[in-house]
Write a structure and sequence with these properties.
- It contains 10 helices and no strands.
- By secondary structure, it is an all-alpha fold.
- Helix 1 crosses helix 2 and helix 2 packs antiparallel against helix 4.
- The longest helix has 16 residues.
Length: 176
């Protein structure tokens, strides 16, 4: 599937793997893909800048810890105390889950990320593009109903439809 991807689109997918690993994710989610596109220096990556999407906003939406200390506190659970006890009993990093890896040692794509990539391929075909660029990735990500992407865009005060309207003319211009 990746043979039709431009260099920038391929680099964005690769970068999403690094981003997912940096935040300790178990798989590559659509938000990791969107963040990688936002950080892309390629022509398609600039499409996100147009709508005011900053990669820092997207990274902030990822959060730091998969165990939400505030949510646990509402239940009367002190996360730091639980961590300390678990590490005392089972060793350092006992609550840290090792991510699954593919046979090639990479983090796997989540189901919604796979769907987004499939929809990006359809977007490229729908725009009569022989190659899939980062703009197509953005449209594919917008086509997937993903809470992480919706929340990140809402935090950045960017409407998905506005982002779509910004990206589509850029795709048309690059195809011309």
């Amino acid at each position: 599937m990746f043979d039709r991807f431009t260099e920038h689109a391929r680099a964005s997918v690769t970068s999403s793997m690094r981003i997912a690993e940096e935040v300790g994710a178990r798989q590559i989610e659509p938000l990791h893909l969107l963040t990688a596109v936002a950080e892309s220096n390629g022509p398609g990556g600039a499409a996100l800048d147009f709508s005011g999407v900053e990669s820092a906003d997207l990274r902030a939406a990822m959060g730091d810890d998969p165990l939400d200390a505030d949510a646990l506190a509402t239940l009367g659970i002190d996360l730091e105390e639980v961590r300390a006890q678990a590490e005392h009993e089972f060793g350092r990093g006992a609550l840290d889950r090792a991510p699954r890896r593919t046979r090639r040692g990479r983090l796997p794509l989540s189901r919604s990320s796979k769907t987004a990539l499939g929809r990006a391929v359809k977007q490229a075909a729908g725009h009569s593009s022989r190659r899939l660029d980062t703009g197509h990735l953005v449209l594919g990500l917008l086509d997937v109903d993903d809470q992480g992407v919706r929340s990140a865009l809402a935090s950045a005060e960017v409407e998905p439809d506005e982002l779509r309207r910004d990206v589509e003319p850029r795709i048309a211009a690059s195809a011309a």
